[in-house]
Amino acid sequence: MKKKEWNEGLDHLDPDIVEKYVEQKDRLARQRKMSKAMWLRFGAVAACFVLIVSAIVVVTMLKGDAPGIIPNPDNSDRYKDFTIQSGEYGIVWPWEYKTVYEKYYSIDVGGTEFIGQQRELSASYVGEKLGSYKATGYDDTSDEVYHEYFDAYEIKDVASNRLIAVKMEDHYYVFISEKYNPPATWGGVLEEYSLPQYVKLGRFSVDGDGKEKAYHILNNDEYIWSVLSEAENAEAANPVGWHNNIGSYISFTVTSEAFGIYKRAMYITESGYVWTNAFDGEYLYYIGEDAAGKIIKHAKDNSTAAEFEPYNKTVAGKVTEITDDYILVDDSVLCKDPADGITYKVMLDDVKISRYVECDFVKVGSTVVVSYEGDIDTKSGNAISKAIDISEGIISDGDVLIPE
Amino acid sequence: MVLQSKHTARKPMEDEKIIELYFKREEKAIEETDFKYRKYLFSIAYNVVHDRLDCEECLNDTYIGAWNAMPPSRPNVLKAFLATIVRRIAIKCYHSNKRQSLIPSEMTVSLSELEDFVSGDEDVGADFDAERLGRVISDFVRSLSKRRQFIFMSRYYVADPIDTIASDLSLSRSMINKELAAIRIALKEKLESEGYSI
Q1: Residue B81 and residue B153 in one domain
Q2: Which residues of chain A from 42 to 101 reach within 8 Å of chain B, CB to CB?
Q3: How far is B66 from chain A (nearest CA, A)?
Q4: Smallest CA–CA separation between B40 and chain A, in Å?
Q5: Segments of chain A scoring below 50 in pLDDT
Q6: Which member of A54, A184, A217, B160 has the lowest number of beta carbons within 10 Å of its beta carbon?
Q7: What are phi and psi of A277, to 5 degrees?
Q8: Contacts of B98 (CB under 8 A, 6+ apart)
Q9: Is residue B85 domain-shared with residue B111, that is, in the same domain?
């Protein structure tokens, strides 16, 4: 067969094959976008500046001057000077090891697709029921597509074409409209999301993020919201290329249970812009230099200095024991004096963490980095609750890998 | 610091509305199509012809093709409909080049992978029935698993690079190569069984 004949044959493929291919490609792109968004949430406070260079990422220098990373400040100088790298396992979880909100990441509400924010919402935020709608799940290991109906609800005082709550297995989860469609004005953002009601402006940094930057905690955010409310007529601007000339700015950390977001960012720039990635896509509005100047000055004058805070709390060390209920992680390998090591009990109380053990990704002797959102209970053998992720750790001293 | 000029964010139009514009014979249909799908269509054309100027021509011809096709055609999936048109035009451009085998495009590479049963830059034979071959390939594609269908279409329909397919499916490059090898073996058997000379 000649090449031209082959290609002309392909030109006569049944249209439904091409349609299915294009739809599958779009679906895969959405999944990647989602997983990238999740990755960014684990990467930095100012997600837009994160550069993912490779699958192996240096997560942090576990030195004594990094509050928040080391759970016991009294022993904050016990660590050696080293770098620990967190290698992504790149795990595609089998269907049965996914949480319900990981399984059903997408739900069609009256023709609009909503994507799960992967965060739970308290019932107190949930408003009127919108109806029962079909959710779609995709099993990466078998290519099977699953559908299930779930009840969807309004989130109180939030436009239901923006964000909704979906009830799954007696818990509520936040889903966000897949369409990128910023309100035409800043007033629209304030109104449609009830932003002042659901976002408390507290921690902020000046001119960027990182351990070398200055951090502050705002005493009270009322004045800033009043200035931002006065700028309600500010029009949406095009964020493409905007970051290249951002100039001087302050960056608030934005966390909101109602929106299903954790440590996103909102910038106020001296050049008069307010920018946020709180709603996945970038929102950018020109509020004017005067309003922005007032906000920046007020924030600097009415805040207290704070220290750098990592995105996630983590512990690292070697796994010494695995049971059905917990794993023990001993960090003495990281200490100047191994006798100063602490053994943490990472509770396997959620499938998100227990699956690492059940699927044999974590074994006794592994060096791991455990991220968690809960607390360390020193009275219960340094028990860590709400662990959310385990990754393989590679410890290096300078450029030399320490043999494990 | 240079102040940015303000631009209102623009949202891509929904496909149904774009199709309606074609049916109303409004030229804004082409503008909206270009705004929404230019990047995607350009990538398909570039995989084939590997020349930006040629790609631009392919895109212009694609928009004219869409304008002429709608109405009467009312596509189920506009993106797929446009992909079919741009591929056909880009392939025509590709084969019109007498030195097509030297074009450093993914299409050239993907065709070379099929050299066990697809070779020769000559024109089609007088008795060649493209529609019949299309049906045979369609049957073959439907016989594949969903994953292999995607890999086949990515590699041999739109000539996506292996790395792109691997990234799309979150699989390794070597895994995609293994899958492609298996697909080619099955495809060769299918074509032989249908009487196509290899």
Answers
A1: no
A2: 90, 92
A3: 15
A4: 11
A5: 36-75, 88, 398-404
A6: A54
A7: -110, 25
A8: B121
A9: no
